[in-house]
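Weekly modeling sync, notes
Attendees: AB, CL, MP (scribe)

Item 1: holo prediction request
CL wants a bound-state model with protoporphyrin IX containing FE before deciding which constructs to order. AB pointed out that an apo prediction alone won't tell us much about the pocket. Agreed to run with the ligand included and paste results into these notes for async review.

Input as submitted:
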Amino acid sequence: HFHREIPEGLRQLPGPSSLPVIGNLLELGSKPYLSLTEMSKRYGDVFQIRLGMRPVVILSGYETVKQALTKQGDDFAGRPDLYSFGFINDGKSLAFSTDKAGVWRARRKLAYSALRSFSSLEGKLPEYSCVLEEHICKEADSLIKELQNVMTTEGKFDPFRYIVVSVANVICGMCFGRRYGHHDQELVGLVNLAEDFVKVAGSGNPADFIPALQYLPNKSMKKFVNINNRFNNFVQKIVSEHYATFDKDNIRDITDSLIDHCKDRKLDENSNIQMSDEKVVSIVNDLFGAGFDTISTALSWAVMYLVAYPKVEKQLFEEIKEKIGLDRTPVLSDRNNLPLLESFILELFRHSSYLPFTIPHCSTKDTSLNGYFIPKDTCVFINQWQINHDEELWKDPSLFSPDRFLNADGTEVNKLEGEKVLIFGLGRRRCIGEVIARNEVFLFLAIIIQKLHFYELPGEPLDMTPEYGLTMKHKRNCLGVAMRPKDEH
Ligand code: HEM
């Protein structure tokens, strides 16, 4: 990197001094969201570190992040060219690739509209308001049956192992029009490898910043490449089957709708065909990948918090019993009527901040923020964890307390408080699955809490230590679960 002259009127970015070759990599440590939060107290909302030879700007503070990602959205909407991202979706990922603004925007629009139409689509059965609701209710039902089976045979279970299959099935339904059994080796093997993916894809992975490391034997990098290959092969096989059975008068799912878009585009002389068919159809890889890991991690954390805070679990159950009763299954339209559950979910997002940094951003041109000069092509990390634990924003941020989101008489969620929780990013690159994700986390939880009671096993204390990554997972725990009797008081 050349030393750039700072334009007049702008200041040079503050930050710690760094070592040759490795930069500040050691200070980052194994919990970068904590070490960078500490540094932000010293250097402010906008500062610079070096990872290897590369300068990286760290953004903290709600107002600063909002300024960068919304008001100056275009300046910060790029993605950096990172070694590990090149393996995701064959380098053609919508979320991780360095696609230029035009192509990225076109793909994002396609992804968004496919997702919207195939989640809000009317279901086959009249009792469901949309296919999303239908998929979730059916998967929750099969999850509960499966957990009962495991309890009978094993007496305990690893929640993530089962939740991840149920959640994957919801997005599989929308993307591929199919579901898999809880013992399907192909799917279960694949989705249970999510940890190996998120560890390497987290912000600050040394191999992304020190090129020499890319040539040394590296176990986690090997696993990462392997899971990406498995994942791509899995999707590729399904996509080929869709091409073979495609019928434009019967668009079955998101994969079909993307194939249809390619065919339509070829007939349309005015369309700008700067995008290969592969770049269109591979959008489905992103939707499937983003759609199962994030939501199953949320639900798995939710189960941990329910076990760690049995009083909260009881209150949530009472709320459902009172507002919905125990005779019918909760549905999406109950969401406005369950403020305690809504607060629990917000507090789960805030307290765990299990997505501590957004996917890294990159400046698309020379720009400035809070008076500091940021050159084009600078890698930028957004510290969501810092915002969710900022003492200026939250009272006792380290306390798990869903009540903080309720109004004084506990009957309504304080919307403004809720909006301060940052877990989906903001602005141009904000998550496109947010509405689905919030609905899905809500409905799975409402159904699970209505029907099940989770508990810690004697001799197996709960371990809530997060393991750093793009999404942070708790250690694998073994829990017990019991059906709630219908007439419980
Ligand atoms: C991007 C969070 C669920 C699809 C993102 C980003 C975050 C995020 C933090 C990056 C924002 C940035 O770089 O600034 C979450 C969380 C979820 C969730 C916490 C669940 C609780 C989903 C679902 C889907 C999805 C269900 C789709 C089915 C995407 C896509 C992007 C993205 C395609 C890339 C957007 C882009 O780069 O333009 N998400 N997400 N996400 N998310 Fe989600």
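Recorded for review: The pocket of protoporphyrin IX containing FE is lined by residues 94-95, 108, 111, 115, 171, 286-287, 290-291, 294-295, 298, 355, 358-359, 423-425, 429-433, 436-437, 441 (CB under 6 Å).
Action items: CL to compare against the apo run; MP to circulate these notes.
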